[in-house]
Amino acid sequence: MSLNYKLGITKSFPCNYLPEQEERLLIAVDDILHDREHYGWLMQQGFRRSGNDIYRPHCVACQACQSLRVPVQDFIPSKSQKRLLKSNQLFKVTLSKTVKDSYYPLYEQYINTIHHDGSMFPASAEQFQSFTHNHITEQYYIEVWHDQVLISVAVTDDIPSGLSAVYTFYHPDYRKHGLGVFSILKQIEIADQLNREFLYLGYQIEQCSKMNYKNRYHPHQILVENQWKTVNK
Asked: How far apart are CA 96 and CA 152, in angstroms?
């Protein structure tokens, strides 16, 4: 694939994850990059999307953000992950390709309860649509149901080489069921069923407790100096 594409660099701004650091982003500017094939290629280079913006950290004095992906055919769940899968067998998992009216109320309840002290509070429809709508690639919505009640949705991008975990939200009353971890395990399972090679989990930040949960899925790969390195348990 040609490398003659236009990229832009943002000004530095305070980092949301490491307060002592300044963040800067590399942005995919060319319209040609905003399709499924090019986005899949960019993800292999460490990019992600937010809405229709495709970016990669490009900070001056910090390299803490590391892209992380799980090779789904090699994945081996840990003992605790196996226990979680077993304990959540009472839930039904379904796959949708359309956003349903029931999603936003669940998202709003999740943000306003679980993340009421975070930067995403209060929930908004615009914020919600940045996860669930884009013109770059198609998406899957992995639903978790308890009887007739929708309790979790994992928004998941579909790219040529894999699936990409975008955002998961769930009913606050079910937080003890580990639905965030459960959704990732199901994303790995579904990626394998769809013959996708990887599940991309975004950026791993070792120094940030909100972001370092991603390294609990083994084996996984992290992008170091433009090379994917395998990390075994």
From this structure: 12
